Amino acid sequence: MKIVIAPDSFKGSLSAAAVAEAMERGVKRCFPQAETIKVPIADGGEGTMDSLIMATGGQAIKVQVTGPLGSIVDAAYGLLQSESGHVAVIEMAQASGITLIASNERSPLTATTYGTGELIKRALDDGCRSFILALGGSATNDGGAGMLQALGMHLLDETGKEVGWGGGQLKHIQTIDDRDWDSRIAESQFLIASDVQSPLLGPEGATFVYGPQKGVTPDMLETLEKYMTAWADLIEQTNGIKLHELAGAGAAGGLCGAFLAFFPTTMRRGIDVVIEYTGIDEHLTDADLVITGEGQIDAQTVNGKTPMGVAQEAQKFNVPTIALAGSVGEGIDKLYEHGINAVFSIMNSPMSLQHAMDHAAELISSTTEQVMRTFYLQQRRKGGIS
Coil, strand or helix: which one is 292? Predict the structure, then answer.
């Protein structure tokens, strides 16, 4: 029996690689002779860099950059090899992510993407001209302004002075001056791996949808939206790019919008980019089962999340897919139409969230074992396994 194990991370608990290890232990308890292929997956958010490095034999290049609140943080970018040369994987959460800030320190008015720009600059210095951008997990709502500044764009106030960092500074920008803009960007290609379709502005935009998890309070929403609107208006006046209602521009607090406005950029669904690089297709051709999963599975999973992307790929080869989750929400019936055959929660008794996170590895292994026992029995009845 051949089992392909292709989970995402269980955020706040286990990396995708650790989840895959736990699932493999569960498989082996039931079926020690099974061939297991571990392919940790991400969907363009956090963990994408590690997933692509593992899949391609790449390496992490360690860099010190400016964190979201201005202090120096340890970060990295992924360096992959391809037929056309070096490919840099820039995971914005490495430099500007919400996990770098304590929950009581979240500050969308001052949080900056400057460090993400520094990561890009370092990769350019190292000779990279092809980039994959993973934009999930941001702490910022600055419309990508900080990232632009790190790469030489001057954002000037009415007196001609450079503005500071953060979403609160967008209101002061009167001029976008590209006299020192890094010329190497025009020579490069940037692929945004994201499934976010939110526009920059409006009730479904960056501030209203994602702002609250970054510390945007209800009385701050309208103010930040006004600042972001002024930023979008200025970009349109400067280069004719209208980001206001552009699908995807709202990803990562508007960082995606800055890429779309000032970089040679294309966008693809994050899970599709990762699946292509991991080469999971090669393992699916003769697989008997795929096991995937992530921390939360619900109706939103159908919108390009890892379990859905993996299941759709497995469906091409008529391989059944079973998904495990820490929490199973409403609306999972939609998933059955797209290749997921069953969804299991790893919770085996009433427990707190903290307990589940602390014991996630064993819970995942135990649930995987039970899944395998059921699958094995069913296959024997069908005559598929002797």
Answer: strand
- Condensed to tens digits (0 to 9), the pLDDT of residues 235-281 reads 999 999 999 999 999 999 999 999 999 999 999 988 999 999 889 99
Pairing of strands 2-5, 289-297: parallel
Looking at residue 307, its pLDDT comes to 92
pTM: 0.88
Over range 356-360, report the average pLDDT: 89
CA angle 279, 282, 284 (to 5 degrees): 110
Q: Identify the helix (H) or strand (E) that includes residue 156.
A: strand 154-156
Distance CA 8, CA 10 (A): 7
Q: Are 252 and 46 in contact (CB under 8 A)?
A: no
Angle between helices 270-278 and 48-56 (to 10 degrees): 20
Q: Determine the Cα–Cα distance for residues 28 and 368; give it in Å rounded to an integer.
A: 10
User: How far is 155 from 246, CA to CA, in rounded Å?
Assistant: 22
Q: Rounded to an integer, what distance in angstroms lies between the CA atom of residue 340 and that of residue 335? A: 6
- CA separation for the pair 169, 153 (Å, rounded): 15
Per-residue model confidence (pLDDT) at position 362: 96
Structure-token match 């059944």, residue found? 320
Query: Residue 268's pLDDT is what?
Result: 93
Quote the CA–CA distance of 349 and 367 in Å, as a whole number: 12
Tokens of 371: 């899944």
CA-to-CA dists, residue 79 to 49, 55, 57, 61, 127, angstroms: 9, 12, 9, 7, 11
Q: Which of 263, 255, 258 is nearest to 68 (CA)?
A: 255
